Amino acid sequence: MTRKERFAACIDYFQKAMPEAETELTFGNTYELLVAVILSAQCTDKRVNMTTPALFKKYPDISSLAKAQYDDLFELIKSISFPGNKTRHLLGMAAMVKEKFGGEIPMTVEELVQLPGVGRKTANVITSVVDKQPNMAVDTHVFRVSARIGLTVGAKNPLQTELQLVKYIPKDLVYIFHHWLILHGRYVCVARNPKCNECGLRAVCKYYQTVVAKEK
Questions:
Q1: Each residue of 173-211: pLDDT tens digit?
Q2: Residues marked as binding?
Q3: Around Cβ 62, how many Cβ atoms within 10 Å?
Q4: DSSP string, 110-156
Q5: How many whole angstroms separate alpha carbon 12 and alpha carbon 81?
Q6: What CA–CA distance (Å, rounded) separates 152 from 171?
Q7: Structural domains of the chain sorted by starting position, each given as residue range(s) with its CATH number in brackets
Q8: Each residue of 88-123: b (16+ CB within 10 Å) or e?
Q9: Is the dihedral of CA 30, 34, 35, 41 positive or negative?
Q10: Torsion over CA: 67, 69, 75, 77 (sign)
């Protein structure tokens, strides 16, 4: 099976199995999504969703967040991983959005990555979720699942994974393909003991064909 055929099979499966795939972070606007994604680094979406309601109630927009005091903001997110760094990132992000971008969150990857706490993955998430831009965010799930299935070959880092994936995915599907891989990795193709018997991609999965099937 060629990689092109493998991608086509995956797209066909996911379109039927998860036609409405989207982020599991709870948000109401671009500002809330950006804050949630910054907080989600090395932290579960579930924990972030438990934390953000109080944060958004106290700081409902960029302007109010830019005026926040470190200790007050830290207190609201202290249950999240790396709260000190993330408090500084949120304060720095809000200040830069206000000062450099006139209070409006930019919507290009090149501008977003200038913000404290925003790397390429976060910028790709924001632009693909809010604006459906053809940007592929690569987290640990996407990195692992795409390699296991055989969608990527020899990719050593997130950028190599991203570039290989977007080469084969139709532009209008890149924004949702990211969610397909994340959800598949979160609930089926888990890091340890992947649930291959529950997976609808067994027939096209390189890992299943070369490892699991041979053990049976």
A1: 999 999 999 999 999 999 999 999 999 999 999 999 998
A2: 189, 196, 199, 205
A3: 22
A4: HHHTTSTT--HHHHHHHHHHHH--S-----HHHHHHHHHHTSSSS--
A5: 37
A6: 17
A7: 3-21+135-215 (1.10.1670.10), 30-131 (1.10.340.30)
A8: bbbbebbbbbbeebeeebbeebebbeebbbbebbbb
A9: positive
A10: positive
Whether 51 contacts 39, CB under 8 Å: yes
Residue 122 corresponds to which tokens in the numbers above? 């976060």
- Say which amino acid occupies 129: V
Rg over alpha carbons for the chain, rounded to the nearest Å, is 19
| Residue whose pair of structure tokens reads 């570039």 in the numeric block | 163
Residues annotated as catalytic (active site), given as ranges: 121, 139
pLDDT tens-digit map of 25-40: 999 999 999 999 999 9
Q: Residues 141, 109, 127, 204: what is their CA dihedral angle, to the nearest 10 degrees?
A: -30
Q: What is the DSSP string of 70-93?
A: HHHHHHHHTTSSSHHHHHHHHHHH
Tens digit of each residue's pLDDT (9 = 90 or more) over 84-102: 999 999 999 999 999 999 9
> Which amino acids are annotated as binding site for [4Fe-4S] cluster, given as ranges?
189, 196, 199, 205
